[in-house]
Design brief:
With about 270 residues, this protein is of the alpha/beta class. The chain has 11 helices and 9 strands. The chain has helices at about 15-25, 55, 60, 65-70, 75-85, 95-105, 120-125, 150-155, 185-200, 220-225, 250-260; strands at about 30-35, 110-115, 130-135, 135-145, 150, 175-180, 200-205, 230, 245. The strands form 2 sheets. The protein has a 6-stranded parallel beta sheet, sandwiched between helices. Strand 2, helix 7 (about 120-125) and strand 3 (about 130-135) form a beta-alpha-beta unit. The radius of gyration is 19 Å and the shape is elongated.
Length: about 270
């Protein structure tokens, strides 16, 4: 590996890149946690960044509150209107999504835990059974009364006639099959994510501010299980001081470069 170090990409901190590459190359099992920053190159805005959805439009965060959604028809109508024109319908997986799929194909990706609801990891080539969606998916709609799940495009087609389409089975309020503020995370999904954090050699957090718990606490779970932590994010995170390597380079460039370094290497016992 030493001979390859001189060929690393010109990232902001080449030594930090080398540390991250070495940790990943030596790992037999890697668990990845991704946040909104992974999908920005696909045209989907993040939430808390300088140009994030909640930064530029504070009312958007309020519309993510479950009580507001369930109790105010005008909020629901606005959410449906925005859902119809969401950039996810035009988005394509980017280089980072494809790099994670490559990591899985190499047999090195234990699991990919994502806070994203856009389905781009699966479309980028990571098998569905390797993706743990802790915040659900916007690609399905769920009835809040009977639990019926329907593909989102099927419900969106009804917006030409209905501004707040209710469940066709029971008449209940419908919303995206995602976790809103005020909703409880699925304990089975969190349990699966916790096991993935415990059963890896390296835990890699990418494109997430690591400020939202309990998901951010998966870093602690992994480190307590003696896994090394690698953080890739545009802005500093609360876990940077505990990580074996921290990279603030563009995700769409640095993640594929790291995965290329893993290819052709054998994990060290």
């Amino acid at each position: 590996m030493a001979s390859m170090s001189t060929r690393s990409a010109p990232f902001a901190d080449p030594e930090e890149f080398e540390r991250a590459a070495d940790l990943l190359s030596s790992a037999g099992s890697i668990t990845v946690l991704t946040g909104a920053g992974v999908s920005t190159d696909s045209g989907i805005p993040d939430f808390r960044g300088p140009k994030g959805l909640w930064t530029t439009n504070p009312s958007a965060e309020a519309m993510s509150d479950i009580d507001s959604y369930m109790g105010d028809v005008d909020v629901r109508r606005e959410v449906w209107s925005q859902r119809r024109v969401h950039p996810v319908w035009e988005a394509e997986p980017n280089a980072a999504h494809r790099a994670f799929a490559d990591l899985r194909a190499m047999g090195r990706l234990r699991a990919l835990i994502t806070q994203n609801i856009d389905g781009l990891h699966q479309r980028g080539g990571v098998p569905d059974d390797a993706v743990i969606e802790v915040h659900g998916t916007m690609l399905r709609i769920m009835c809040m009364a009977c639990g019926l799940r329907t593909p989102t495009p099927v419900v969106l087609e009804r917006l030409d006639e209905e501004s707040d389409p209710h469940c066709l089975a029971c008449g209940g309020i419908q919303k995206a099959d995602t976790i809103s503020f005020g909703q409880r995370l699925d304990p089975d999904v969190i349990g699966e994510a916790t096991r993935a954090a415990q059963e890896c050699d390296v835990f890699m957090a990418v494109g997430t501010s690591l400020t939202v718990h309990p998901v951010a606490g998966l870093c602690d779970v992994a480190m307590m299980a003696r896994a090394a932590l690698v953080v890739v994010n545009a802005e500093p995170t609360p876990y940077d001081d505990f990580a074996g390597a921290v990279l603030h380079d563009p995700i769409g460039e640095v993640v594929p470069a790291l995965v290329r370094r893993v290819r052709g290497t054998a994990p060290r016992n």
